[in-house]
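Good morning N.,

You mentioned wanting to compare the apo and holo forms, so I went ahead and generated the holo version with adenosine-5'-triphosphate. This is what I fed in:
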Amino acid sequence: ASTGAALADGPKKVVFLVNGNLGDKSFFDLGAAGLKEIKAKYGDAVETKVIEMGTDQTKWMPTFEDVSEQDWDLIVSSTFEISDIIGEVAPNHPDKTYVLVDGVVPYENGGYDNVYSVVFKQNEGSYLAGILAAGLLKDGTIPADQGSSIGFLGGMDIPVINDFLTGYVEGARSVNPDIKVAISYAGSFNDAAKGKELALAQYRTGTAIGFNVAGLTGLGQLAAAKDVGKWALGVNSDQEAIFKESDPAMAAKVATSMVKNIDVSILRAYDLFLEGKLPTGKVEAIGLAENAVGLVETGNFVTLVPEALKKQIADARAGIIDGSIKVTSAFGLETDKLNALRDSVRP
Amino acid sequence: MTQLDLASLITFIPAILRVTTPILLAGLGVLISSRAGVLNIGVEGMMLSGAFAGVVVSAATGSATLGFLAALVVGGALGAALSFAVHVLKSDLILSGIALNMAAAAGTTLLLFMLTGDKGMSGSLSSQVLPSLTIPVLAGIPVLGTLLSGHHILTYAAFLAVPGVGLFLMRTPMGLRLRAVGENPESAEIAGINVRRVQVGALVASGVFAGAAGAFLSMGYVSWFSQNMSAGRGFIALAAEVMGHGSATGTMFASLLLGIAEAASIALQGVGLPSELMQTVPYLVPVIALVVHARRRQRLLARA
Amino acid sequence: MIRSAFASFVITAVLLVLVVGIVLVPIAMSLPDPLAVLDTFVFGPFRNPRHTGNIIEMATPAMMCGLAVAVMFRAGMFNLGVEGAFFLGGLATVATVLLVPLPAFAMAPVGILVGAIVGSSVCVVPGYLRARYEASELVSSLMLNFAALFIGLFVVNYFLRDPAAGAMVSYKIPNDAKLPKLIAGTRIHLGTLIALAACGLGAVYLFMTRAGFEARIVGSNPSFAAHLGLPIRSILLRSQVIGGLIAAGAGGIEMLGLYQRFSWQSLPGNGWTGVVVAILARDNPILLIPAALFLSYLQVGGDLIARNFDVPSEAVGLIQALVLIVVTAQAIMRNPRLLRFVAGSKPATNAAKETKAVEGGVA
Amino acid sequence: MTDRPIIAFAGISKTYGNGTLALDDVSFAIRPGVIHAVCGENGAGKSTLMKILFGLEQPSAGSILLDGEAVAIASPRVAADRGIGMVHQHFSLVPSLSVAENIVLGQEPRRGAFLDRAAARRRVEDLARRYNLAVDPDAVVRTLSVAAQQKVEILKALSRDVRVLILDEPTAVLTPPETDELFERLRDMRATGLTILFISHKLREVRALASHVTVLRAGRLAGDAPLAAIDDEAIARLVMGQAAGPALKRGGRVSGAPRVQLSGVHLKARDANDRIDGIDLTVHAGEILGVAGVDGSGQRGLVSLLTGRAQPTAGSIAYEGQPTAGLGTAALRRLGLAHLPADRFQDGGSKRMTLVENAIAGAHRLAAFSSGPFLKRRAMETRTEEMIARYKVRCPGPNAPLSALSGGNAQKLIAAREFATEPRFMIADQPTRGIDVAAAAFLHERLSELAAKGGAVLLVTADLDELLTLSDRIVILYAGRIVARMENEPGLTPERLGPYMLGLESAA
Ligand SMILES: Nc1ncnc2c1ncn2[C@@H]1O[C@H](COP(=O)(O)OP(=O)(O)OP(=O)(O)O)[C@@H](O)[C@H]1O
Ligand SMILES: Nc1ncnc2c1ncn2[C@@H]1O[C@H](COP(=O)(O)OP(=O)(O)OP(=O)(O)O)[C@@H](O)[C@H]1O
Ligand SMILES: [Mg+2]
Ligand SMILES: [Mg+2]
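and this is what came out, ligand included:
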């Protein structure tokens, strides 16, 4: 189905509904950045707005209903939690177009011709991060006295976080089948101090490089890495860049970041929408092939990573894109299987 | 924690002290306010605001000291604001504290956004941190060095503040007045003490401690401010004060216990039990400790 | 009496306008249409039945949590377990309707009942520890809230998680278990009636039954209760059980009334709202209703302006915080001069009457 | 000695925030160097006037002249600077602080930043020596007997170089020897030039101590005269607005079967003042057994044993022959116990609750006041109104909070509740402390009536007049033991009891 025909003249109106608050350095901030990019690209031809709905879930539905009744052309929101709500509201507003990032409505039930879902294969990006971490250890770029295992610091034990974990573990194993991964969950996404403490505990017990996937909590890992002189891997956006100016010493310990280009995907959705080519009525899973996820290959990456490892990463990337490498996803994975995976790499 | 030998236990100690520091600082703040009869529920918000002020001012001035002072001043000012609500407007103490927490969470995020265009964190600001201290001779000694040297300056400050606050409360004229006001304001009034002035002072002092606790988070633990980074530590500090039975040393031991429980839950993450269950440890240990303590006290009383 | 109640009401209203004005007007002035912002904040919630419905939906758990707090505070227990009880009650309700095979008509009542019983433990355990060991209920309830959160998350992760869902959420709540909606075009559900009834029953309990009377005696003066020979421990415990059941039941009602699945990943905050509402209502169950509606009205008005104008949601939070302080400000609300000004009568004459009444009683 | 008044009240009126007119155009003067008594019924406005003088309350109209000069006394601090000290009717000590800390509170000696404890202790010792009032400066106030606390209160007032000392019912809690001791001290102080304002309900004391009396009635000045110029009957008439009724006569009661028996009872208590150290005692039906003793001789322990709030550590208590081991207050109350507690607001009622609730509490489960789980509010109210009328409780109405009542009126309401159950065993603990003559006489009649109807009464009192008026038999407690038992024969005088109470003699 296509919504292009429904377009009228005048500036288009795009709204991004945040089911939480901005400032998470993740889904929400990246979504808001996507709207900024749309505005930057189209200027006066578009009107954009970001609405923070807060953490009280009972407020989300009323907001969606209000917004759907207003004259927005494109309504964007993200995370799986919002799927049920779009699932209920969208069929009542067939004249509106919805973009659901990192969530899916039940297309099999029908009636979702105005919803475009896009999910990110963060497990593919994390696979590369796993190769990088294990590779740096294996080839001695990180000397053995720094530690023998790699780390993973998650915000909570939830599917979207574990999707990073499965890819990360598999990538690391592809380099070193016996690699050990210290895994911790903070139980919170905004406690940087706790994040630092968890990271320090991992570094103290033999972790040489850790991957944080915990929003603002995860940034604590960078402070820990700086303190103990070990390595960190960022997530979602380029964490080296955040501190490049303000704290170069800390930025210097971020080997790379695994980025998830939510902003790019929203901009792309808007481009397609304008052209009348937005593939509504179905879900698109985007990953390395679409450049939707990947590693930051500038900054420290350039100087730190040996050419051989760079090539190994590039090969894996090609393998994933051509399908010769399959990366397990945590979505749909039973808790038992996930536990088995975690147990198998415990230091 | 694969092997539980002495060495790994010792490396555990700095972690305990770090986790304990903000709870202890804020707990001492709660202590001063509660002994004066004006329990400060707003520590959480004061902590958050202190963390924010420290980062912003140190970034603006390039001075960690000034940033730290700003954290103290902002904490104290919020103590004065709470006192204004309670003493002048005569609003409910608890409700005003809750309101202050709400306002601090909203206000710091809003100000952060206005200053940096980012609601999440202050990464773009080059803020300063307060140093850790290496104690010259001690640092060299094997076990003692790890125990006593190399901690953050505010960790030392927090533990040194314990006898300070204790002596202040128990041995100084002001402390005597403060306790009298908290226990029996009418009597204090009759003795010619300006009850309101003492309570204002206590709330300001309480705010200053909370501000220091906040500064430890944003200028010690990490070097930036992030949204809601106090993460409930103010409430844990309230618990520490109650568990400490209103004394400075009691508050210190309670904070240490809470710190140990938290540090243990962090260290135990490695053993592979469900992380959710590990995360209950810091909350269940204090309850158990409270009951054990209460039972022992009851038994002692029964025997007497 | 009625006149002075009316006077306080007028003062409240005027104050609110002032507070909102102080924070909102400067923001509104910077926007293209300042009047529309104020208009939306004040009247918006009543223009659209759905928004009016939002007030009532939001007030429903606030009333019940406020009631739970009031019942426990009245018995003299500073138990903050309402937050955790609400969370755990919601979870246990969902777990029951998902895991226990029940006929359709029994799902909601059994679910809520089980939820209430399981969830109430967060209030009852601190109550027991206090009654039995004199361990501070403030501390233990505060701590158990968090313990309940993580235990709940564990249960979701290991027993209720819908693996097909992309988040840590339970399977969908069966439609048969959901509470019926009462008014078309809104989400107002049966739970609202339950909450109103609960407040009424709460008032009956506290002021018209022997058990409630005893609880208030214990709460207002434990020594007096001991003098009378009241069984203080069991009264204390009974109050925490009642409070816990109400709070946890409220969690279950909220889940079956407004949610599709169990999807809380942090404490939802309703317990704190309950404390605020109870303090506003001075622990009076009937006053809980206007107090909860009032807070929800502020919230909906704030949401509307945040949604429709460039007003940051944090500014709304600031307004709400200020309002809380102002509406309990005795210096303003009980200011005799102000009351006299608004009510238009002189308390001096009242005083004379009262004095006479006192002296009349002497003869 | 000059005749110019040191203090003059000029047209003082006071209306409290709740509208109570406590003082209405009161004017009189106090000459320096005298002991000046102020009398009046409960609620006459005595304490209010003194609080105004001490800066705790502000007058609504009128002014105070000190040495002929109008002064505004804005706070106790100002009063202290002007040389006015006050011993309050209700203690104003901080229980967890030591005696010395309480006394220096507000003007602490310092050494550097710290409190100079040695200097504080010395200051207390000096004061104690100067005024001959022995106290232990390091004792924590909470652990002190009431009499000792009273001494601390006085020392605290004197510690600020006072010229005028206000004593608001200082003897209410003292035994006769202690009262005599206090009066000695007060006379000494007057001799050094101190002016003393003395408030009491006891005419005997007023006459023994003061040289001038002012009487307040319902907030107005009812009379003002040198004591030499006025007889007791005239004062009583001024106080009550009418002549006093005939005094109660004791005797004529026939005691019956043993109702409550204690044999070899011991109680180990945390507070040494509450210890019981081997007591054998029987209270019979139809008698009033008076228990005398210096405050802190074990009275509290005895009462808590008899009311089921403590269990004996050794020995046994029997109630009509049945052992009561393990029975709590509720069970004992079902057996017919009633208790008029010494601390009326601490144990006797709830200040925040209404008169109805206070009056019916405890009886609320009776069929008269409840049906099923519900209370019958109407019946409760009617019943309370009857109690208010019968016990002449001065109050704004049955739904006023107890806090709106003066202590005396609160006590009447509490008594009404405790008598209402027609108890078989009544413990009356300081039933008339701080209560005016008329109200006290009324309560005495009730106790007497109860005994006459066959009730057993245990009267614990520090007021020896009361003890001698009411009791059939008397036991004297000292340090947790009974040191004397006697019939209350007509010749018995307070002086005979004194040595036993102070533990100087023993006859048991
Ligand atoms: N703080 C107050 N607020 C309102 N009314 C008060 C207050 N204090 C005293 N009153 C009232 O003022 C009147 C005078 O009280 P006051 O305490 O002066 O009496 P009093 O002569 O000292 O009585 P007593 O012999 O009982 O001590 C009483 O009716 C009392 O109820
Ligand atoms: N806020 C108030 N409203 C009404 N009455 C009050 C208030 N505060 C105190 N009172 C009453 O006023 C009196 C204060 O004076 P005071 O302390 O001399 O009385 P009291 O000793 O308790 O009474 P009594 O002499 O009858 O024992 C008390 O009786 C008290 O109950
Ligand atoms: Mg008085
Ligand atoms: Mg009195």
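The first strand of chain D starts at residue 7 and ends at 15.

Happy to go through it together on a call whenever suits you.

Best,
F.
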